[in-house]
Amino acid sequence: MRGLLIDIDGVVYQGGALIPGSAETVVWLQREGIPHLFLTNTTSRPRAAIVEKLQALGVDVSAQEILTPVIAANHWIRQRGLDPVALFVAAATATDFAVPGILPVEAEQGAAAVVLGDLGEAWDFRTLNRAFRLLMDNPAAPLIALGMTRYWRADDGLRLDVAPFVAALEQATGRQPMVLGKPSPDFFRQAADVCGLPCEQLVMVGDDIRVDVAGAQAAGIRGIQVRTGKFSPTDLDGRVVPDAVVPRFADLRAWWGGS
């Protein structure tokens, strides 16, 4: 093992609070020169806001240390010359998109691609139906999912993420989504390329056994489950078997040294 991929929400922090020991563990990674990259499916805010939050909590990272689905989507969309695209993401997140053209927010025709992220409470029937109409208008338009996280743990409890809304559109249109985020193996392979390491030399640390652990394992990356964030003891009763289970991200140091 030479490098680490690390989920953020539920691993480094939860809600507005740092999980104890996380800042010290990041300092350890940086001091030891261990190649690492933070992987997040968060699409409710731009990458700069994620950096700002981490730094406010005492975790000193740069934007280049964070890979988000939006960054992956930018590359994928530009590579295929898709123009214009319809964005179903938070307004702040839309500023991270560097694509040729973005469809007006009220348009129900003319999308070369439909991109879904986490809209939170902004999701309603009209918004979801607009995405449906755009896809039905152009049978060639891909349905791009910015990750397939089912839910996450906020300060007030569990909240739905993007996957249920992608699933609704997949069911209604028969369109298979292109997932640009976890648990897509391609997303993990892109992270490996950024780290400059083969997948077999990387370890993923996450709180979601399906999105983080199983997704990484499908790409040939070992997956470590932490008992923080959205973790539930019943997660360990299913078909996914983590390569290791640790109480917190901070306990990774002892595991790394003894593995």
What would you note in describing this structure?
It is a single chain. The protein has 259 residues and is α/β, with parallel strands linked by helices. It has 2 domains: 3-41 and 182-258, HAD superfamily/HAD-like (Rossmann fold, 3-Layer(aba) Sandwich), CATH 3.40.50; 73-179, Rossmann fold (3-Layer(aba) Sandwich), CATH 3.40.50. Helices cover 34% and strands 19% of the residues. The strands form 4 sheets. It has a 6-stranded parallel β-sheet with strand order 5-4-1-12-13-14. Strand 6, helix 4 (91-94) and strand 7 (113-116) form a beta-alpha-beta unit. Helix 5 (125-137) crosses helix 6. The radius of gyration is 18 Å and the shape is globular. The mean pLDDT is 95.
Quick rundown:
This protein is α/β, with parallel strands linked by helices and 259 residues long. The chain is built from nine helices and 14 strands.
CATH superfamily of the largest domain: HAD superfamily/HAD-like
Q: Distance N terminus to C terminus?
A: 9 Å
Q: Rg, please?
A: 18 Å
Number of β-strand runs: 14
The assigned CATH architecture of the largest domain is 3-Layer(aba) Sandwich
CATH class of the largest domain: Alpha Beta
Number of alpha- plus pi-helical segments: 9
Weakly predicted, low-confidence segments: none
Q: How would you sum up the major sheet?
A: 6 strands, parallel
Shape: globular
Oligomeric description of these chains: single chain
Tell me what portion of residues adopts beta-strand conformation.
15-25%
Tell me the helix content: 25-40%
Mean pLDDT: 95
Question: Any key phrases for this structure?
Answer:
about 260 residues, Rossmann fold, 9 helices
